[in-house]
Amino acid sequence: MFLPLFIFSAGANLLSTKYVISKVVPDQIPSSGHINVELTIDPPYTGECFCKFDTTIVKGFGEKDGTVICQAPRHIGGDIYVYFSPDGENWSTGLLATYTVNVKTMWIIVAIIAGTCLASFGLFWWQMRQCKNSSRKNRANAQVVRDGNFGFDDDEGFQPLRRNSPHLL
C-alpha cells in the first residue's frame, strides 16, 4: 500500500520538466532596472511564469518560440544569476548576467559633492577675509584712539585723515 504512493511521488518529480536558460538579452542590465529582459529557454514555455534575478522574483510571460520576457528589478551593480520557473517553485539552473551602475547618475553625484565642497571652501575663504579685514579696521581704530588724535593735528588745526595717514594702518 505504501509502495504505490512512493512511486507516484517519485514519478511526479521525474515527470517535471527541467528548463535551461541559454541566453539573457541584454546580459548587461542597468542597476536602475525597469527594462524588459528576454530569456531564451529550452524547452519553450508559453504563458505566465516567473523569473528570479538573484533573490528577487518577478512575473514574466513565455512566448511560443522559447522567449520569456521579464522586467528586471532594481539591483546593485555586479554579477547575478537569472533563473526561470513556470510555477515559482521549481527553478532552472541560473545563467550569469551583470548589473551595471549607471555612469550618468554617478557623475551627477560626483558633481554635486564637488560643488558642495567648492561652495563650502568659498564661504570659508570669504569669511576668513571678512575676519581679516575686520581685525585690520579694529587695529586702525585702536591706534587712533590710543594716540588720541581723531583728525586734529596740534600744530596745524583740523586735518582730515588721508589714506596714507600714519594714524591708519
In short:
With 169 residues, the chain is α+β, with helices and mostly antiparallel strands. The chain has helices at residues 2-15, 103-147; strands spanning 20-25, 28-30, 36-42, 47-53, 56-62, 67-71, 78-85, 95-100, 152-153, 157-158. It folds into two domains: 17-101, Immunoglobulin-like, CATH 2.60.40; 105-158.
Could you please describe the fold and organization of this structure?
- This protein is α+β, with helices and mostly antiparallel strands and 169 residues long.
- It folds into 2 domains: 17-101, Immunoglobulin-like (Sandwich); 105-158.
- It is 35% helix and 31% strand.
- The strands form 2 sheets. An 8-stranded mixed beta sheet has the order 1-3-6-5-4-7-8-2, with no helix packed on it. Strands 9-10 form a two-stranded antiparallel sheet.
- The longest helix has 45 residues, at 103-147.
- It is rod-shaped and about 100 Å long.
- It starts with a helix and ends in an 11-residue tail after the last strand.
- The model is unreliable at 1-15 (pLDDT under 50).
- Keywords: Membrane, Signal, Transmembrane, Transmembrane helix.
- This is IPT/TIG domain-containing protein.
- Residues 1-17 form the signal peptide.
- The chain crosses the membrane at residues 105-126.
